[in-house]
């Protein structure tokens, strides 16, 4: 059955469908960067509220700012913006259709439709999942990068912006001119202090052209910090076939694990859905949850993915079934990451690590090593290097994280140990590969990438440890190097 509003009543009984009247839904949220994760996570929480008869005036309008978003828009509009979520758990498979999204804006140069929608009084939250690398931050300082080419363009062309932040500023300018309050801007990306980072990008860009607007945004707007968690692989042909076997023809189904977590600061300026009624955590201490998740899970993904790519393993679950990598993963975590993670209510770091190991080992979640390793220049910068800096500041050993960085450098040579090619997998792949190849004979070249490592190249203990591990990886191979570390 081709997925659509009219088909919902005819889908198999085992598939849970919206019980609310979708014709009654009214928009309240614009979500920019509407990929698989959003549909399996934030859209699901809202859908669960709607199943309770609540939040019917908070429906989602999808949006994107890049041309490639148009393909997803076409797919979703053809099926009335419905999505099939397929939970893949070792205990069984479950499917549900969610309907919390009602439209997807046209993708146009200058972002006119997006700006107009965000400026509408009905929109009270603008949320984003634009990836860790989608924020314009100076790698060395972590501050807003006002010199970036796209940011300079938006400052010079405020009515025809290229970036999501330029579009947000343009919409807020219209709201202020029309006497409307600002919307809450909610980052759902894996960044420590993501709300604070989003505020710096929006207010920083606004201040380049209109300081009074920047002050209004800063003083009356809201940028909650949040932490999101759910493993959501890319959609495969096999998943589309699985949905068909279950009775649904969905052009863009989403698979996910059974675990979800969403932690938010309650600092919204224009109302919000009661997400806590369906399991979200509302707290004044998002940072502790963020630190635990970003360092143990997201950082742990990089620990596994780079080694797995070198060893020609396909998925994270394959890595967790490998003869060496589970022990390697746990030792890296215990030696290099857990000492810099604090407990949160009802969960200490060691218990959280055990939970992550169980989730990563789920054989039904086909989360590819390639997907997890993508954009290492953003992910290592955001997930691994802050922990490394904490270790250096405390005077502790840096051997564990130096090995993690050496594995990334080895991966970026572009060849696996079986001789097969690793296709470009980073926006900065050419520069990374060039540095990785030079580092085979002079390891410090890798660390001289200042946009990634900054002053870390001056830390003698780290430089020495990194060089030792990278030399071993090239001379002895990955297996022998991991064995030496484990011993």
Short structural summary:
With 487 residues, this protein is an alpha/beta fold. The protein is built from 21 helices and 11 strands.
Would you write up a description of this structure?
- This protein has 487 residues and is α/β, with parallel strands linked by helices.
- It has two domains: 279 residues, NAD(P)-binding Rossmann-like Domain (Rossmann fold); 200 residues, N-(1-d-carboxylethyl)-l-norvaline Dehydrogenase, domain 2.
- Helices cover 46% and strands 10% of the residues.
- The chain has 21 helices and eleven strands.
- Strands 5-2-1-6-7 form a five-stranded parallel beta sheet, sandwiched between helices.
- A hairpin with a 2-residue loop joins strand 3 and strand 4.
- Helix 4 crosses helix 6 and helix 6 packs across helix 7.
- The longest helix has 25 residues.
- Keywords: Oxidoreductase.
- This is Mannitol dehydrogenase family protein.
- InterPro entries: 6-PGluconate_DH-like_C_sf, 6PGD_dom2, Mannitol_DH, Mannitol_DH/Oxidoreductase, Mannitol_DH_C, Mannitol_DH_N, NAD(P)-bd_dom_sf.
**CATH homologous superfamily classification of the largest domain:** NAD(P)-binding Rossmann-like Domain
Helical percentage: 40-55%
The top level CATH class name of the largest domain: Alpha Beta
**Count of discrete structural domains:** 2
Query: Uncertain runs with pLDDT below 50, 5 residues or more?
Result: none
Largest sheet: 5 strands, parallel
Strand order, main sheet: write it out.
Answer: 5-2-1-6-7
Q: What's the alpha carbon Rg, rounded to whole Å?
A: 23 Å
Distance between the termini: 56 Å
Which descriptor suits the 3D outline? globular
Query: Could you tell me the strand content as a percent range?
Result: 5-15%
């Amino acid at each position: 059955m081709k997925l659509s509003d009219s088909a919902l009543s005819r889908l198999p009984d085992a598939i849970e469908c919206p019980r609310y009247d979708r014709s009654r839904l009214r928009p309240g949220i614009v979500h920019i960067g509407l990929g698989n994760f959003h549909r399996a996570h934030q859209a699901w929480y809202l859908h669960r509220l709607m199943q309770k008869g609540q939040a019917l005036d908070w429906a989602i309008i999808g949006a994107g700012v890049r041309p490639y978003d148009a393909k997803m828009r076409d797919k979703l509009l053809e099926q009335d913006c419905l999505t099939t979520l397929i939970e893949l758990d070792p205990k069984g498979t479950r499917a549900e259709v969610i309907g919390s999204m009602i439209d997807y804006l046209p993708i146009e140069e200058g972002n006119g439709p997006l700006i107009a929608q965000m400026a509408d009084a009905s929109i009270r939250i603008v949320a984003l999942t634009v990836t860790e690398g989608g924020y314009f931050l100076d790698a060395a300082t972590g501050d807003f990068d006002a010199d970036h080419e796209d940011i300079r363009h938006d400052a010079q062309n405020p009515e025809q912006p290229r970036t999501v932040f330029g579009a947000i500023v343009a919409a807020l300018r219209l709201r202020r001119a029309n006497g409307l309050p600002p919307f809450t801007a909610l980052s759902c990306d894996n960044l420590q202090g993501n709300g604070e980072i989003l505020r710096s990008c929006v207010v920083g860009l606004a201040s380049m052209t209109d300081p009074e607007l920047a002050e209004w945004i800063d003083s009356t707007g809201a940028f909650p910090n949040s932490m999101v968690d759910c493993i959501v692989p890319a959609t495969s042909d096999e998943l589309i076939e699985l949905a068909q076997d279950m009775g649904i023809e969905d052009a863009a189904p989403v698979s996910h694990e059974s675990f979800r977590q969403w932690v938010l600061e309650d600092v919204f300026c224009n109302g919000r859905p009661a997400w806590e009624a369906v399991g979200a955590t509302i707290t004044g201490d998002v940072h502790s949850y963020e630190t635990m998740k970003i360092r143990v899970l997201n950082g742990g993904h990089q620990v596994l993915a780079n080694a797995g790519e070198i060893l020609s393993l396909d998925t994270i679950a394959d890595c967790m079934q490998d003869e060496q990598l589970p022990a390697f993963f746990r030792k890296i975590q215990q030696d290099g990451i857990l000492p810099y993670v604090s407990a949160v209510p009802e969960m200490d770091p060691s218990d959280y690590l055990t939970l992550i190991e169980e989730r990563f080992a789920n054989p039904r979640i086909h989360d590819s090593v390639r997907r997890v390793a993508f954009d290492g220049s953003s992910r290592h910068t955001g997930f691994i290097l802050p922990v490394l800096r904490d270790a250096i500041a405390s005077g502790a050993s840096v051997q564990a994280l130096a090995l993690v960085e050496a594995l990334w450098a080895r991966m970026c040579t572009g060849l696996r140990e079986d001789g097969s090619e690793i296709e470009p997998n980073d926006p900065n792949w050419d520069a990374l590969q060039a540095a990785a190849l030079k580092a085979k004979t002079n390891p410090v070249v890798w660390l001289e990438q200042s946009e990634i490592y900054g002053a870390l190249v001056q830390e003698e203990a780290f430089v020495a440890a990194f060089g030792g591990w990278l030399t071993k990886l090239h001379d002895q191979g990955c297996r022998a190097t991991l064995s030496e570390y484990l011993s």
